[in-house]
């Protein structure tokens, strides 16, 4: 086995038995087939078989199944083995195999190693390891995550705050992806965690309002703090849908279903132009036994985006779930007729 080949096949799902088929084989009782191919370089078979052996208390056998894949140095196999070991309570072993790859210089190993340490009472050690890497986006995110458990929130805040002074001249090369607005979002996360919500909100409002991550974070923060009026104001002018989604969820949680529906259907709201928001509205309607309205919402999207497959899947599923298969078939028949029976995919 070769790590590069394994990685290519796992990422592209080509030239291998995909995980969906492995699951179906196990569901149908073909455990012997999965076991056989686990030893023939089929990663998804090996992973499923190892998990099954672990559930049966055969941990040594499970690790033996993964051993040839681990021997290649393939990072995906390392993380899978570490996750299994951790789930079995063998934390020291999980930390050790991750540490070995970190010391070998694998670019993703430090993040996994630090998170493992933090999950098991060694957050201080994790923070110290991460501190020299403050300029690397993925690692500073981990540093912010582990800072609370390490009791070093203020130190993390000071490190991140220094990055908010950076003005990009050639994003992302000039800052390695850790630009000013991303740093503001991380600093706001720390402040909210410290109970300083007003400061966190103010930070997010000083950042680039066009940055989607900051919009989503601000909407979530306002919702978590129950600041309904402020959330309404943001939702009225936000075309990213995050504020509308947060507002609708908050109102639904408070029992105001009509208010949640209205949030999606507000004038100039996102539903008409955004199929993802329409889908969220349809799911909301279904949760409250208004399936016919959900069908109407997705039918509008299906008509507007004639032949978009995921919308057709959603509409068809709704028609089936609501006992109206005829309506779904009629829509598909009309689409088929309009296209003269010529489709690139199996309508």
Describe the secondary-structure layout.
Layout: H1 3-12, H2 19-27, H3 31-38, H4 43-55, H5 59-71, H6 75-87, H7 91-103, H8 109-119, H9 123-130, H10 137-150, H11 153-163, H12 180-193, H13 197-206, H14 212-224, H15 228-237, H16 242-253, H17 257-265, H18 275-287, H19 291-304, H20 309-321, H21 325-338
Helix pairs in contact: 3-4, 4-5, 5-6, 6-7, 7-8, 8-9, 8-10, 9-10, 10-11, 11-12, 12-13, 12-14, 13-14, 14-16, 15-16, 16-17, 17-18, 18-19, 19-20, 20-21
CATH architecture designation of the domain at 273-347: Alpha Horseshoe
Largest sheet: none
Please write the string of helix (H) and strand (E) elements: HHHHHHHHHHHHHHHHHHHHH
- The total count of helices amounts to 21
Q: Roughly how many Å is the radius of gyration?
A: 25 Å
Write down the oligomeric state.
single chain
Helix content: over 70%
Derived structural class: mainly alpha
The outline comes out as globular
- How confident overall, as mean pLDDT? 91
CATH secondary-structure class of the domain at 273-347? Mainly Alpha
> Low-confidence stretches at least 5 residues in length (pLDDT < 50)?
none
Question: Beta-strand level of the residues, as a percent range?
Answer: under 5%
Remind me, CATH topology of the domain at 273-347? Serine Threonine Protein Phosphatase 5, Tetratricopeptide repeat
Distance between the termini: 39 Å
Record field, number of beta strands? 0
